[in-house]
Amino acid sequence: MMIDAHAHCFTQLCGFGADGELRSIGGGQARWATGEVIDLIPSHYGDTTFSAERFLSVMDSHGVEKAVLLQGGFLGFANDYLHRVGKTYPDRFAVAATFDPFCRSADKILDNLQDTLGFSLFKFEMSTGCGIMGSHPDFPLDGKLMMGFYERIAAKGGTLVFDLGSPGDGSHQIHAIREIARTFRSMNIVICHLASPRRHHKNQLEEALAVLKAETIHFDLAALHHKVRPEAYPFPTAQAFITLAKNMVGCEHLMWGTDAPSTLVQYTYQQLMDYQRALFTEEEQQKVFFANAQRIYFKG
Asked: What global pTM score does this model have?
């Protein structure tokens, strides 16, 4: 059994980040407000959307039982849609809510997400590219503004997921994450993309893993091959970084993920599975590819 611990689905593309809005232009492509055009969806998976039903067909064809849907600025917030997906397929998907903490009605938004829609999993994509710090000035992740939201999420047994961007970005605040974990000691925290190291960031990754080594802090490995680009399959730098993480924080704190669908433009779902699975024994695979995500996201 396998769980894809980091993926995305959408029926309306409404991305927003440092390059302004991101909108579909057909043919699996999308255009930022800067005019840059990107390949977003493989042509055989969709034209302008990548629905939960489409993703389920991909999962089923690869023996993947469940997936975690973590929306953010790149594809746009989609709380209502993910709520419906979670209710329709509760045994297949765990779904995360998100919101902009700078909204004047942020407290009311959180009320709705927690109390009306019943979300307990929250993702904050903080990166300076497609995240909240792409359209807001840098701010402390452990400052007064954010800590109040974390407290409310922790009080209801929630889980926090962070995309911190890469080392050197204002959003890459590993010491703040450590402080959040110390303050809310029973709340699970997940860091996306193994803290997003680039090819030359081995030392920074070692520092991040040392700082963030804690019982309640975990990492997904999604799109690590994209972070270390350009590099040919099977991405030796990404593999070296994953092995480093395995040795420093242990397999109990790592989760396989794909970041589908955008990562499927260049590589197949099977490739994104195989290059990471090759790094683990069968016993380790059971943890990284299933048990850890089951425990954290599906409460199993």
From this structure: 0.97
